[in-house]
Amino acid sequence: MAKEPLELKWIENLLPEEGYRRKSMFGGFAYYLDEKIVLITFEAGNKTNWNGCMFPVEHQNQAKALDQFPILTPHPILPKWLYLPIETEGFEEWVSDILRVALRPNSHWGSFPKEKKSAGASGKSKAKKVAMDIPKNMDTRRPRMFSDEDPKEMLQKAKKLTDLKNIGPTLEGLLRDAGIKTPQQMQKLGWQKTMVKLVKVHPKTNHSMYAYTIITALENKDFGGMSESQKTEVRAYMKTLRDRLKS
To answer: Does the pTM of the predicted model rise above 0.85?
Structure first.
């Protein structure tokens, strides 16, 4: 693992010039303000295959955080972390906006790590602390959200929208407002008609990122699984949709 961040080094410029510290964590880099962890970055090639930013938020505060930034995805392995893949369109702007809110005084963003049970913790006890965060039988090399399950089989057995990859409670609520209540209903509509219904009810969702989320949910892919030609097609369609709804 690199001793210094490379691709995501620029993010440190968004943190206070003094007061933060960085330490290695799970193949990435964790950033602390005093004793509060506010950010974890992962770069391509790390042992987890995660690539992007994670923002720790305690469970009781996640609804507020997701209302502010519904583009984030609750991480299935580490539930107090909200994930933003590096492939996200406008990744740099999203990270800047999120940190601007997360770093405010008395912010509900961030998390205080659990205290060690004994002062003389050894390397062995440190490993046990990590085990509390990640289940022993969990293969962290490939997160569950990036499974290779066949999309048709996955859609057949999915009972609710949040059973689909990349769809969290906030987006589920927006879709339900638009009259889309089941995975099978969304599958029948397809991503384009789904976006039309969604944008008519919630105009702020008229963004290609929401379309990416719908598409990858239906195809059971992570955001990095979309080709550039597919993203270009989506952006062109969303521009057409914006123009159509304006007229």
So the answer is: no
